[in-house]
Amino acid sequence: MFDLDRWNEIWNALAKNKVRSLLTAFGVFWGIFMLIVMAGAGKGLQNGVTQGTAKFAANSAFFWSEQTGEPYKGFKRGRYWHMDSEDIQYLKDNIPQIEYITPRNFTGRWGGGSNVIRGKKNGSFNVKGDYPDYIKIDPSSVLFGRWINELDIRDKRKVCVIGEKVFESMFNPKENPIGEYLKISGVYYQVVGVIRAETTININGRTEESICLPFTTMLQTYNMGNTVNFMAITAKPGVPVSIIEDRVKELIKKKHIIAPEDLQAFSSVNIEKEFQQMNGLFLGIQILTWIVGIGTLLAGVIGVSNIMLVIIKERTKEIGVQRAIGATPRMIISQIMLESVVLTTVSGYIGLSIGVGLLELVNKVMENSPTTTNDRVFFTNPSVSLTVALSSLLVLVLAGLLAGLIPASRALQIKPIDALREE
Amino acid sequence: MIQIKDLHKSYEMGHNSLHVLKGLHLDIEKGEFVSIMGSSGSGKSTLLNILGILDDYDRGTYYLGGKLIQGLNETKAALTRNEMIGFIFQSFNLISFKNAMENVALPLYYQKISRKKRNQIALEYLDRLGLKEWAHHLPSELSGGQKQRVAIARALISQPQIILADEPTGALDSATSLEVMEILKEINDQGKTVIIVTHEHDIAAMTKKIIKLKDGVIGEVIKNGELQAFKDRVRTE
């Protein structure tokens, strides 16, 4: 396989039709290039999303109340209801598989106007009431100061933890926000911490643009009684959150006299399910990438097959002579197959290299542009794995063999006498 | 060397069947210098193809060096050709991108002899045919006679028992033709069986035996002693 004469022959066969060989090679090049770039882009999207959500508690579910959808036990359809603080303890007592359960209340910044004032600065931000455990479900990193603690909850302290953007718009860049006061909807709160979200998942508005109060403080200052707007739950390790999700709904509906079959009254998001759906989506993207990539590659392969046929046709006489003086059919086949594999592999390898090079370039450019978590595009580290690269190389060799199949069988059909007779 | 009995061959041409060889008998001894003649359509090319195992036959038997040549698959046929037969063609049929030496060495390549060794042997053969200085020239840089000599060297290199030449002088001028015939005669003198197909009487007259084909059978065999008479007869025709 590795003797000089054979390579000499391959080189001559291809060099005789330079332009045609080049164009054909481009077909294969483009096929593999597209495959790599698409696979890399798909991977980048996947990386971006999974990295953005990696720290989020995957075994979590979120609940909120809405108007009832069914009449039940004397109540009519469309009733407003809400969870309350007692429900939290009730669920904790009745569902042992719950790891963390935290209520959360919020006021939107809708309703217009600025709700936050400090000196001459003002802004409009989400205000949320949280428990200390919330940060274990939807993680944020504390940039300065601290997060809400148990004492804040117990004493209903008027303190707040602000998002990074809030800090940027309410304070001067070098200023220390800790210990400063913000006037939120008419009440002063002392800033105790600044946070940045660690994931790209946002619950009730972007964390960066939010101000978090202790839950109990919020109940009191906003006159919320014991209302709970929203609730986050995580399952203990090894327990599917779906089980808890169903159980919570069952218990809460029973407690608040809501029809068990009412699907509207009590809504929830199951992050586990969302993740599964996302993974399904990425699988879909991968499959699509390979279908399109291989389709493009196939077009290139057909091109190779085509030019090989032309080469065979032009070399009919030569092949005839070779067979007359003792070349066996096997030698002829392996020669043509090798030619085809060389053409596809070389051009494909170039496509592979340039594709990978392009991905690396994009990667470099993206690494050099600093971003915060929420500003990050859903696209990180586009790359192809070694497996993808190796399997596409394998696909190439197979494609080359495939492309050589028809020309080789055509060459075999050439009888030496026919070839020699052709003047 | 060659024993052919009752050889039949016909070609399918669409719906018609063309019966070319119709029960041909032929014996050629080792060391003979034979020319096969005949008008076009007499079956001389077909016979040469069968002799060279380039084509199969329908009926009869063909023994080459005591071995029955019948229904060989392509691989076996290729090996037998490589081992036993040297081909010389009218249009030389050299590989255009290989130089003279590589062309000569080609049959040895198929015998899987190492490059160094086969090129060395090829150089020896080229030397014997007076083409040593041309060893590294491409066929396009050689004259017709030189090309044919390269082709002869290629036919000889695998040391076959039989040289089959199809109109070896057909593309050459008369002086070069004579030269080539001289070489073939020398090869014959060294004990090889040489069979040439030609339609030129004076070329045929330089061989030791002329076999004239007519309508798919042997019409006439003119042996060495009668060659002069043949020549005279040709002249008067």
List keywords for this structure.
heterodimer, A: 423 residues, alpha+beta, twelve-stranded mixed β-sheet, two-stranded antiparallel ribbon, 13 helices, 14 strands, B: 237 residues, alpha/beta, six-stranded mixed β-sheet, four-stranded antiparallel β-sheet
Strand % of chain B is 25-35%
Taking strands numbered 1, 2, ... along the chain, how are they ordered across the largest sheet of chain B? 6-7-8-3-9-10
Question: Structural class of the helices, strands and pairings of chain B?
Answer: alpha/beta
Question: How many DSSP-defined strands of chain A?
Answer: 14
What series of H and E elements makes up the topology of chain B? EEEHEEHEHHHEHEHEEH
Mean pLDDT of chain B: 87
Query: What is the radius of gyration of chain A?
Result: 33 Å
Q: Classify the helix fraction of chain A into a percent range.
A: 40-55%
Ends apart, CA distance between termini of chain B? 34 Å
Task: Quote the average pLDDT of chain A.
Answer: 85
- N- and C-termini, Cα separation of chain A: 31 Å
Number of strands of chain B: 10
**What general form of chain A does the structure show?**
elongated
Tally of helical segments of chain A: 13
Q: Secondary-structure element sequence of chain A? A: HHEEHEEEEHEHEHEEEHEEHEHHHHH
**Uncertain runs of chain A with pLDDT below 50, 5 residues or more?**
none
Verbal overview:
The complex is a heterodimer of chains A (423) and B (237). Chain A is of the alpha+beta class. Helix content of chain A is 53%, strand content 17%. In chain A, the strands form two sheets. In chain A, strands 1, 3, 4, 5, 6, 7, 8, 9, 10, 11, 13 and 14 form a twelve-stranded mixed sheet that branches. Chain A has a two-stranded antiparallel sheet with strand order 2-12. In chain A, helix 1 packs across helix 11. Chain B is α/β, with parallel strands linked by helices and 237 residues long. Chain B contains eight helices and ten strands. In chain B, a hairpin with a 2-residue loop joins strand 9 and strand 10. In chain B, helix 3 crosses helix 4 and helix 3 packs parallel to helix 5. Chain B is globular, with a radius of gyration of 18 Å. Classes of the chains: A alpha+beta (423), B alpha/beta (237). Chains A and B meet through helix 1, helix 10, helix 11 and helix 13 of A and helix 2 and helix 3 of B.
